[in-house]
Amino acid sequence: MKLSAVHHVAITVSDYDKSKDFYVNQLGFDIIRENHRPERHDYKLDLKCGDIELEIFGNSTTDPAYQAPPKRIGQPDYDREACGLRHLAFRVKNIENYIRELKSKKLRLSH
User: Which of 32, 37, 52, 58 is most deeply buried (CB count within 10 A of its CB)?
Assistant: First the structure.
């Protein structure tokens, strides 16, 4: 059996509100669904852009009850989720044009 594609990427973020704004308003992802999960003290955002699906997990910095990283349910050795992902790479048709577009939105690019 061979894998045919990546189904989705899950990212735990330190700032849910900024991350939601970035993926939706800057990169153009559509919101599939958004869930407040009080039992885990976090929010979950399902996004889609073409064939790319992302799951964003995190806390709202505007809600003081959700300042710590999300709780890790079912994992007794871990109290909290670790934030991050080493990197996430997207394929675009023309990288130079895409970089210009991102810079026009005042986004800071590392390379």
Answer: 58
Report d(CA 36, CA 38) in Å as an integer: 6
Q: Which residue ranges make up each domain of the chain?
A: 9-85
Burial class (CB in 10 A: 0-12, 13-18, 19+), 51: exposed
Sign of the Cα pseudo-torsion (31, 29, 63, 72, in order): positive
CA dist., res. 64 & res. 78, Å (int): 22
Q: Rg (Cα) of the chain, in Å, rounded?
A: 16
Burial class (CB in 10 A: 0-12, 13-18, 19+), 72: middle
Rounded CA-CA distance 7/51 in Å is 9
Q: Please give the model's pTM, rounded to 2 decimal places.
A: 0.69
User: What is the CATH code for 9-85?
Assistant: 3.10.180.10
